[in-house]
Amino acid sequence: MVETKVFKLAQIKDAATLINAGELVAFPTETVYGLGADATNEQAVKKVYAAKGRPSDNPLIVHVASIETVEKYAAFISDAAYRLMKQFWPGSLTMIFKLKPNAFSKTVTGGLETAAFRFPDNQATLNLINISGKPLVGPSANTSGKPSPTTANHVYHDLNGKIAGILDDGPTRVGVESTVLDMSTDEPVILRPGAVTKEQIENVIGLIETNHHKVGKDETPKAPGMKYKHYAPKAQVYLVDQGDWEAAIKWANKQSFAVGVLAETQLIHEFNLGANITSYSLGTGVQEASANLFAGLRQFDDMETIKVILAQTFAANGLGTAYMNRVNKSAGGEHFEVEQD
Ligand code: TXA
Ligand code: MG
Fold first, then answer.
1. Model pLDDT for residues 172-231, shown as the tens digit of each residue
2. pLDDT tens, 130-159?
3. Are residues 203 and 244 in the same domain?
4. Which of 143, 176, 210 is the last residue of a domain?
5. Which of 180, 198, 281, 336 is the most buried (most CB within 10 A)?
6. What is the ipTM of this complex?
7. Best substitution site from 25, 180, 181, 211 to test ligand 1's pocket, by max atoms within 8 Å of Cβ?
């Protein structure tokens, strides 16, 4: 096994050299770390699926450092899309466009006639794209099914020895992935809620649809990634709604196994937690909770003894939609139920 190199920002040129050599380098964004490869090099892109253990029908986001690069590959960009780019790029809005014929290999698109484009808000990664001169594919740099990485350490944990390098720019700011908006259809549709909210998008282009329901194994979902298990630690996660915490902690205190509590600081201080309970603070408010969620799930995942994780819910509006979408998937939709006796 060849140890993965961790690059400091001063070493971006070395990271770019690896990209140009067809190697994999994980890169920081404002949302989560991505697993980068030259989007125009099919052999390099194939390595991304192998390193992550990702199903090959799940297409990749193409990361760019200019709108011109999108224009080079997309067959059509509407006025509404240009308005969104102006408002949110660089930033956490990914947009899907129809491609010109043979713009990218099938390995990038998963055989679709579209591709998802994203202009991340991270200067180091924009430099990496500019120095390498290549658009970069970039799924989240985690092992498929695990929570997305919000630090270089998380990437190293999952992918050491499987990728050439990691460009380290500290913890990510937003912590949940970008919003995926399909602009290739007549009506724009949100396929994955993310850091840019539906409300923010509607302020720019008017009312839009959301379509991020669960899809069965044999169905073809709009965003292929949605049919796979996601953000799932080894322990069973239960969502605990606001009024149910007292009962949930009472239950946890009676168990003989270890329980993790993932909640806001204030909530953790409100209860007497028994010796079998470990808490991880999500901070205060939905913004901090979103930034800390994946790190918390990962911390509990590294503690082999934890059998159950109790996780806080937030109202599903604004950024809360993205937070709830992720935590719901990690829980497989399971809520802590208060027993009636
Ligand atoms: O914040 C983010 O978006 C991060 C950072 C690294 O940029 N990237 C990320 O990529 O989350 P990934 O591959 O983990 O998630 C991309 C999602 C998947 O659900 C995928 O199925 C969907 O976008 N997707 C990609 N291309 C698509 C396309 N052409 N049509 C429909 N869905 C697409
Ligand atoms: Mg992902």
1. 999 999 999 999 999 999 999 999 999 999 999 999 988 865 444 455 556 655 555 678
2. 999 999 999 999 999 999 999 999 999 999
3. no
4. 210
5. 180
6. 0.99
7. 180
| CATH code of the domain covering residue 48 | 3.90.870.10
So what's the pLDDT on residue 245?
97
3-state SS record for 66-114: CHHHHHHHECCCCHHHHHHHHHHCCCCEEEEEEECCCCCCHHHHCCCCE
Tokens representing 20 are 């140009």
Pocket of ligand 1 (CB under 6 A): 29, 31-32, 34, 58-61, 94, 96, 112, 114-116, 118, 120, 138-140, 177-178, 180, 191-192, 222-226
Q: Is residue 134 part of a domain?
A: yes
pTM: 0.95
Query: What Cα–Cα distance (Å) separates residue 321 from each residue in 123, 179, 290, 326?
Result: 27, 11, 10, 9
198 bridge partner residues? none
Q: Are residues 200 and 257 in the same domain?
A: no
Domain hosting 327: range is 236-331
d(CA 166, CA 32): 13
Which amino acid type is present at position 263? A
Number of domains making up the chain: 2
Backbone angles phi, psi at 340, to 5 degrees: -95, 125
Verify that 81 and 173 share a domain, yes or no. Answer: yes
Q: Which residue has the tokens 């193409």?
A: 62
